[in-house]
Design a protein that fits this description.
11 strands; Spore Coat Polysaccharide Biosynthesis Protein SpsA, Chain A; about 375 residues; alpha/beta; 2 domains
Length: about 375
Amino acid sequence: MGFWGGFRTVVSRTADIALVASLGYMTVAIVCTARFGRRRPDAGTETPPVTLLVPLHGTEFSLAANLRAFATQDYPAFQIVFGVARENDAALPFARRLAAELPGVPIDIAIGFDPHARNPKLANVLSMMRYAKHEVLVLADSDTLVDPAYLRTVTAPLRDPEVGAVTALFSGHPDGTFASRLGAMFMNEQFIPAALVERLLGPLRHCFGPTNAFRAETLRAIGGFEALAPHLADDYMLGNFIAAHGRRVVISSYVVKTTISERSVPALFTHELRWHRTIRGVKPLGYAGVFVTYPITLALLRLLTGRTPKRAVLQLAAALASRIVLQRVAARALNVAPAAMWMTVPRDLLGFALWLWGLGGSSVRWRGADLAIGEGDMLVEEPAAR
């Protein structure tokens, strides 16, 4: 048979087994995503005062509209704290302009960062916390767009004293570039369905990034933001620490709109590689199984290396069909426009390449800085060689 023949057989059989697992996963993901799409909004009747923390860094797509949406909530009493690390941050004029235009909204602007925090986002947030006035806290990303019911909905589950944190899923909305459309597909068609499937494995023990609501006393109980500052996956660890403290982490019925504005595929690759290496750091076994979310790539490997082309073609057709069905179900559940069907192929190939690349490496690029990862998702002082 020779080396090449033996290698080809091993790859073909491995891809065959992996594809069966992938198609099974896709079926479960379609069901879970469709069920989430039938959720009912949880409108809160209790409305304790809220401090909304929004760290800023640079000018993002539709930043002015995003910040205004945070400031125009249908909520009786809330404070907003915008924060930048430095006086020359391009986002600062947007925050100051909004504060001047809406004098009736309590808006504080923090400038500075904690030099001891290795996580650049939390270095900003720790500086912002000196302005926080209320017991209920909501930490939100500035690249998200919300509606007036946002605060009321995401804080509603906190009326249950057993709930320690409320986290929100997110939908990706591209700004029109090819790279941004690929990025939105990753969020809508792969990351979110995977998160919904994961709920079948047991209680949620982590948070997601764009929005998290919790009480100040819960934050203090886990050591404050200072305990999260050495971690790359600060949002994940927020929920992990809270769950370890005996409180529940729940997913809100609210879906946050996240703008994807990557200018190029290399920029998108760098961005998503940070997510991949972050996931690998906090869930190494789970990350090893991420390959099941790429059925098209597995089917193509099977087709290129298999000795039964008719079966391989049928498997590829099944893989394409499953991805397109999940794409349409996810679009409906998240209330987004589905991407073009032909884009499922390059999206799967890019994702699989990122997964392979993410299996190794110990650095990421975030907010213009190279960050080195040590054990798990712990950040170390000096960047490692990329």
